[in-house]
Design brief:
The complex is a heterodimer of chains A (about 350) and B (about 290). Chain A is an alpha/beta fold and about 350 residues long. Chain A is about 45% helix and about 20% strand. In chain A, helix 2 packs antiparallel against helix 10 and helix 4 packs antiparallel against helix 12. By secondary structure, chain B is mostly helical. Chain B is built from twelve helices and no strands. In chain B, helix 2 runs antiparallel to helix 3 and helix 3 runs parallel beside helix 6. Classes of the chains: A alpha/beta (about 350), B mainly alpha (about 290). The interface between A and B is large, with 90 and 47 residues.
Chain lengths: ~350, ~290
């Protein structure tokens, strides 16, 4: 990977220079590869923004993770080398502890529940980011993470003795695994494939599109359909930079990027369904967890979520608000997602 | 339970519609055809004017179809069909509907060529990766040409079906085929398997567990094997690797070399002419990209 460190000073200088010259260049990093839907949509959006602001606002992308993982991208944003990035929600926990609330273990059972809650809660999470100093343009769905394994996992017993991957730094998952008496193994995401090949890990959790993109599907034979965790991401721009744009230009950026994030959100829902079909064609079998196991896992997760809320890992108030909405939805008080 | 909070990149997961930017390597051997047709094939490869070849190719395609009709189990003819249809669609056809019709035939010919040569490889698209690799390792070396046609047919099909998640799902299999060919004979088809392998390995950035440096080595080896005459390998080094890692210096340097290099090289003239044209386009769009 190209080393950018030596250009650090000049990049910082350039960032300032661009603004002073009246034409701001917003530098945004993403893990999405060139040619992916994300990049195509974003490049089209950048062109529209440039046209509508008569060249006053340009966006420069660093795709394919060339600026490092989410943590190092955020570090570069902090020092002004970059102005923003596309992050998985969990990566922003240090800034907004509650940002990852939708990803809490087993909180959702279906996309209908997700839609119902997100229609009511996206704005609150977005506001948290805005208050923390970041312009946020909405959230894009990554899909439900599911258990993927070389042998069927329908119960806790089935998983016992297997080496289960937990993402590096993911304390919540680690604690949940331990609560169930299972064997978590921590690895950074980029090492998972090597880990699967070397049998350092045997079980992963991923969305279908994630499994295909990372090629983990070549190492597993079963997917337990139970939605473990809802994955999503967001694009943020540091307000220290964003607020220097003319207010009218800020509005244009918000409008275009907001629109694109809604589109990406919809694309990903469809893509996950197509990815499930592609995995099935490869001979991968989708199975259900037993009702007993589902209930046990939900119970463990729910207790853990409550405990973490009480410990202040995230806002207990917001968590309970989500539970309230879910309760409304499940009790049939509402019949339509938009209600 | 909570293996849950996987940090799969939402954005990274949208790795569809990403496919091979161009399959430049037109290396049609004409095996299994008559002496005259072999001559035609060589003449095509040595022609410095892509427009002339574009005009002439449909006739050659139909002739190849006719020869396959006459001998449907002749794997050499099927291979030629796969490679010709792939090359024609990828290099010359802009209309996606038309291209999809052509690459469907390329894929079908490639699959059939491999199936004719090896019974155990008849329904490889329907098996899982582990079984696929098992079959691959049991194939004899003399199946290499049909294995290559099989993957070339699929790669061209994939390029025009990049919205299809089965493309992403099947990609590791074809990467395994290319690695297998390179391991057996890196000079195969003038090093083109090396270049394809580099291109496939460049599809995933490090953030998705890819290893661009391996891709770079494949491109450089292909360039070395051709004594620097394979200009499309250089173009891919710039497009697939240098752009992936944002190495502007390498990108521009290699492409300028392509523009300055002679177009004529035995068996490479046509692809070199196309490579020069692509090098110009890439240099022109570099300011926007970097």
């Amino acid at each position: 990977m190209k080393k950018f460190a030596m250009f650090f000073l000049s990049l910082v200088f350039l960032a300032g220079f661009c603004l002073d010259a009246g034409a701001a260049t917003i530098k945004i990093a993403t893990a999405a590869p060139e040619g992916s839907t994300w990049m195509k949509e974003m490049r089209a959006g950048a062109e529209e923004i440039s046209l509508r602001t008569e060249g006053r606002v340009r966006i420069k992308f660093f795709a394919g993770g060339v600026m490092g993982n989410d943590k190092s991208v955020m570090r570069k944003v902090r020092i002004g080398q970059l102005h923003g990035g596309a992050f998985i929600a969990g990566s922003l926990e240090d800034i907004v502890p509650s940002i990852n609330l939708f990803s809490l273990p087993l909180i959702f059972r279906s996309y209908e529940e997700v839609d119902y809650v997100r229609n009511r809660m996206d704005k609150e999470l977005k506001n948290e980011l805005e208050e923390a100093g970041f312009a946020c343009f909405g959230f894009a769905e990554g899909g439900f993470a599911r258990i993927m394994s070389p042998q069927p996992i329908r119960s806790t017993e089935d998983a016992r003795g297997l080496k289960i991957w937990v993402p590096e730094g993911d304390r919540i998952s680690y604690r949940a695994m331990e609560s169930l008496g299972l064997a978590p193994v921590t690895l950074p995401i980029t090492d998972v494939m090597t880990g699967l090949q070397a049998k350092l890990i045997e079980v992963v959790a991923s969305s279908p599109i994630g499994a295909l993109a990372f090629q983990w599907h070549t190492r597993i034979k079963y997917v337990t359909s139970l939605p473990l965790s809802y994955l999503y991401g967001t694009l943020v721009i540091d307000k220290r930079f964003f607020n220097k744009l003319k207010p009218a230009d800020q509005e244009i950026v918000r409008e275009v990027m907001g629109r694109i994030y809604i589109e990406l959100n919809n694309y990903n829902r469809q893509d996950n369904q197509k990815a499930i079909e592609a995995m099935t064609q490869q001979g991968i079998e989708f199975i259900d967890a037993s009702e007993e196991a589902s209930a046990q896992w939900r119970q463990v997760s729910s207790a853990l979520n409550q405990q973490m809320g009480e410990e202040g890992v995230f806002s207990l108030t917001l968590y309970q608000k989500i539970l309230g909405h879910l309760n409304d939805f499940r009790s049939g008080k509402v019949t339509r997602i938009g209600n | 339970m909570d293996v849950l909070n996987t940090k799969n990149k939402v954005s990274a997961a949208t790795l569809n519609r990403f496919f091979v930017s161009a399959l430049l390597l037109l290396t049609v051997t004409g095996c299994g055809l008559s002496g005259f047709q072999r001559g035609l094939s060589a003449a095509m490869m040595n022609n410095p004017d892509p427009a002339t070849v574009r005009e002439a190719m449909p006739t050659f395609l139909v002739t190849t179809d006719a020869m396959i009709e006459a001998a449907p189990n002749n794997s050499a003819r099927l291979r030629t069909g796969a490679e010709l249809y792939s090359a024609f669609a990828v290099l010359f056809i802009d209309d996606p509907d038309r291209a999809r019709r052509l690459v469907a035939r390329a894929k079908m010919y490639g699959e059939k060529a491999l199936c004719v040569d090896a019974d155990i490889a008849c329904h490889l698209d329907q098996v899982d990766f582990e079984e696929f690799v098992g079959v691959l390792n049991r194939l004899d070396d003399d199946v290499l040409p049909s294995l290559y046609a099989y993957t070339i047919g699929w790669l061209s099909w994939a390029q025009f079906h990049s919205d299809d998640w089965s493309v992403v799902a099947n990609l590791p299999k074809h990467q395994a085929v290319l690695a297998h060919i390179v391991a057996q004979d890196e000079t195969f088809h003038q090093g083109s398997a090396l270049v394809y392998l580099g291109m496939v390995k460049s599809l995933r950035p490090p953030s998705l567990g890819g290893n661009p440096e391996e891709a770079r080595k494949h491109f450089e080896r292909a360039i070395e094997l051709s004594n620097g005459q394979n200009l499309s390998a250089k173009v891919e080094l710039a497009r697939s690797y240098a752009r992936l890692v944002y190495d502007r210096e390498l990108h521009d340097h290699v492409l300028k070399e392509v523009l300055e290099a002679p177009v004529e090289a035995p068996g490479l003239t046509l692809q070199n002419a196309l490579a020069k044209s692509q090098a110009r386009d890439l240099l022109q769009s570099a300011d926007d990209f970097f």
